[in-house]
Amino acid sequence: MDVIVTPTPSLKGEIQALSSKNYTTRYLLVAALAEGTSTIYFPAHSEDSDAMRRCIRDLGAIVEEDDEKIVITGFGRNPKAVDQLDVGNAGAVLRFLMAIAALCPDVTFINRYPDSLGKRPHNDLIDALGQIGVSVEHNEGKLPIRIQGGKAKGGKIQVSGNVSSQFLSALLFLTPLLEEDSEIEVLHDLKSKVVVGQTLEVLEQAGIVIHASEDLMHYRVPGNQRYAAKTYSVQGDYPGSAAILAAAAVTQSDVIVHRLEEKSKQGERAVVDVLRMMEVPMTHENGIVHVKGNGKLKAVEFNGDKATDAVLAMVAAAVFAEGTSRFYDVENLRYKECDRITDYLNELRKAGANVEERRDEIIVHGRPEGVEGGVEINAHYDHRVIMALTIVGLRSKQPLRIRDAHHVAKSYPIYFDHLKALGANVEWVE
Questions:
Q1: DSSP state, 400?
Q2: Residue 114: CB partners within 8 Å, gap ≥ 6?
Q3: How many C-beta atoms lie closer than 10 Å to residue 303's C-beta?
Q4: Backbone Cα Rg of the chain
Q5: How many Å apart are CA 132 and CA 134, to the nearest integer?
Q6: Are 311 and 344 in contact (CB under 8 A)?
Q7: DSSP-derived 3-state class of residue 376
Q8: What is the distance between the alpha carbons of residues 255 and 278, in angstroms, rounded to a whole number?
């Protein structure tokens, strides 16, 4: 389904931030890897977290849920033998479970999204799994991927962090369960270090011991560990909320978002700092962000690697800022559901934005007077692109039609409901 975003001069109201997708998928996984019963309060409901639920069920976890919690009885280090796993379009879920599949005799991850996840490479993780004795059949590093595990042994592992930190996170979930101790060395650079911090935080909460170097490039992992069954509470989600906050920033607004912890380890928390740098009137205290937007913004320079999943929303806000903004160190945006630099900027140009791309930079020449709009644009099946293009539509002179906007459900199924509740003029169309 498509959505038509009609220019909306003002937003007003209060919403509860969605629960964090990143934390939910990690808590689901560590609960499944525990022997015993864990409880997760306030889990996120999205296509990604649903994919993890589905897959851990297939692997033998018992998953029961009601409106406020999920109760999981884990399979420990003995997942059930399955022939196939379907992760949908969830890249992080695929990569985490590729590592856990090293505990299974023979499992194939199928390719249901050839135009999105099916195009993404996983060679760095495949190479690392080969180093610990796991046999992997693949299509030039892409889905479908068959993993023949059951004989994985700890030891020295090297993994590249150039493309994604998810490959490292996957190994950090697996290696504590192997009999031998492991040593993991990250080669080249490590993208999205803050997200690795979230993985380490969750592992520690699950009772796992990992010795990480200060720069997060070296790890000593004692083997033969057990995940503990625990109770977890999922915090509010900054990546999704970034789009709501950016929408409030570019309009005349009085918008309050609850459940956004000031001391969260989510790197996307930086969206609050960036909007402040843009001189957006706002406060952030007691887990509440209050934006009183006046539609006036100043240009910024920002290292996007610190807040990967909020960059597109910040770029959308910068489209209407006075001056030229620069978001740098963002090359890993190219390896997401789509190429979030080339594909996204092409759509922004159609809407009338003045943007430039470099290999690892996005340059935005702001247009405080607004952009023309009045076109149909392609979101490339990417939830973050959909949310960011919607922000631009709110401040366009004519409506924007965003194709396949239902893919927003990957991380934020009620995004458009929340925007409507704040007064945005958005309408679903066939």
A1: E
A2: none
A3: 13
A4: 21
A5: 6
A6: no
A7: strand
A8: 17
Chain mean position to CA 107? 25
**What is the reported pTM?**
0.86
What is the number of residues in the chain? 430
Which pLDDT value is given to residue 370?
A: 96
Which residues, 6 or more positions from 358, have their beta carbon under 8 angstroms from its beta carbon? none
Tokens read off for 60: 């033998």
Angle at 253 between CA 317 and CA 298, to 5 degrees: 35
The residues pairing with 145 across neighbouring beta strands, listed in sequence order, are 109
Residue with tokens 């609850």: 258
Q: How far is CA 389 from CA 21, 160, 384, in A?
A: 21, 32, 9
Residue 301, pLDDT score: 98
Per the rule left: phi > 0, alpha: psi between -120 and 50, beta: everything else, 130 is alpha
* Residues acting as catalytic residues: 309
Phi, psi (5° rounding) for residue 316? -60, -40
Residue 151: the pLDDT is: 87
* Torsion of the alpha carbons at 369, 375, 376 and 378, rounded to the nearest 10: -50
C-alpha to C-alpha distances, 254 to 175, 257, 283, 370, 396, nearest whole angstrom: 48, 10, 11, 20, 20
Helices (H) and strands (E) in the chain, counts: 12, 26
Quote the tokens at residue 408: 């927003």
Alpha helices in 115-268 (DSSP H): 123-131, 166-174, 193-205, 238-249
Q: Which residues of the chain have pLDDT under 50?
A: none
- The neighbour count for residue 287, using CB atoms within 10 Å, is 16
Say how far apart CA 169 and CA 165 lie, in whole Å.
6
